């Protein structure tokens, strides 16, 4: 039995469209800038950033995949590409034969250390500087509310 769709109102559709357009344009511009300035893809950047910010340069494979909201296969392909370029290594987990750690190499640490200042300046230029402190606070509250709501919803 199909329920009748709960169509969005004009205002709801406008808010959704604006949010998606802003998010896609922002991510696209940041990704292109990271690529141009550092030679790293946006995926390289996010993996190295999360590894070094959260895990001290070392994290279990599945924990990293969950942290960036990627499927296991996508993370596996990304780690493979980054391993070939010497940015990360994969180490067996001593207490779990099926598990693995992803470890940022010295080259990976250097790459993220060089890319991060440029990235944060672009985040500031394109996003932070466009909003007042009050607007940033409101956006953080809204984002956290949506995230909490999503956690309660089935995937």
Automatic annotation (TrEMBL):
Pfam families, alphabetically? Answer: MarR_2
The HTH marR-type domain is annotated at: 1-148
- Which SUPFAM superfamilies has this protein been placed in? Winged helix' DNA-binding domain
Superkingdom of the source? Bacteria
PANTHER family tied to this protein:
MARR FAMILY REGULATORY PROTEIN, TRANSCRIPTIONAL REGULATOR, MARR FAMILY
Put simply, this protein is called: MarR family transcriptional regulator
The organism encoding this protein is Streptomyces axinellae
Recite the lineage of the species: Bacteria, Bacillati, Actinomycetota, Actinomycetes, Kitasatosporales
